[in-house]
Amino acid sequence: MIAERVKMGIPGLDRMMGGGLIPGTINVIVGSYGTGKTTFATQFLWEGLQQGEKAIYISLEENEDRIYAYMAEKGWDIEKYRGVALTVLKFVPYDFNLAINSIKNELPVLIRQIGATRVVVDPISLFEDLFDTAATRRQEMFRFVDNLRTQNCTILMTSETDKDDPYSSRHNLIEYLADTVILLRYARSDAQTDVHLTLEVVKMRRSAHSREIKPYEIQQDGVLVYTDANVF
Ligand SMILES: Nc1ncnc2c1ncn2[C@@H]1O[C@H](COP(=O)(O)OP(=O)(O)OP(=O)(O)O)[C@@H](O)[C@H]1O
Ligand SMILES: [Mg+2]
């Protein structure tokens, strides 16, 4: 029985996972563009900061200022955590060796130095893109995730979906490595007149979890999951 959970700070989703994520696990949010991956990830960090935790945001997409601006727009008093409890790092994934080595080797060191208990990598799929063969990607990602698992830190990665399969991450790999997989998706009504955002907890190692598909909305101040509503 695992008593303590790491709350994502999205009440409906936390309930679907038996209270939240399991401390020290590797978790991934898979979804296509605009489904709210970054919003979920920032909410997870914000929740930790408010609990007095230290956090790291590794971004492969947006620069530091844009990430702070994005969080401030939610009405969060994020500036007071900047460089104190929250460290934001932008990795530019154009230099293959530099990006891979810095993420692989420096992230575990940084986690320990800072004493971070929450880390976001957004999106991990851009990092995975850097490997030139599927075999190297698998081997390196396995090592990377295994190494992160030994840190006393809860990790949340985001991943873009495959362009032909809204149920799979782009490289169809991270969902096997992660302990928890949360899938974000667009659901269209039969008449194709409405689009809903839906989420499901596809997998959660060492825990019971909901298998229902629930609608959610991205609102000005964060994500709202309609746990009492059904999509189907
Ligand atoms: N203030 C807001 N109010 C309502 N909806 C918003 C607000 N801000 C963002 N959104 C919605 O959230 C979506 C983007 O969310 P987010 O950036 O978290 O998605 P993402 O999955 O990370 O996207 P990407 O794959 O492009 O990085 C927008 O397309 C919009 O629908
Ligand atoms: Mg994003």
How would you characterize the overall build of this protein?
There is one protein chain. The model has no long low-confidence stretch (mean pLDDT 94). This protein has helices spanning 11-16, 37-50, 64-73, 96-114, 124-128, 134-149, 174-177; strands at residues 26-31, 55-59, 86-90, 118-122, 154-162, 165-169, 180-188, 195-204, 214-219, 222-225. It starts with 10 loop residues before the first helix and ends in a 7-residue tail after the last strand. Strand 2 (55-59), helix 3 and strand 3 form a beta-alpha-beta unit. Strands 1, 2, 3, 4, 5, 6, 7, 8, 9 and 10 form a ten-stranded mixed beta sheet that branches. With 232 residues, the protein is of the alpha/beta class. The chain is globular. It has a domain at 24-161 and 168-187: 3-Layer(aba) Sandwich (Rossmann fold). It binds adenosine-5'-triphosphate and magnesium ion (MG). Adenosine-5'-triphosphate (ATP) binds at residues 31, 33-39, 160, 218-220.
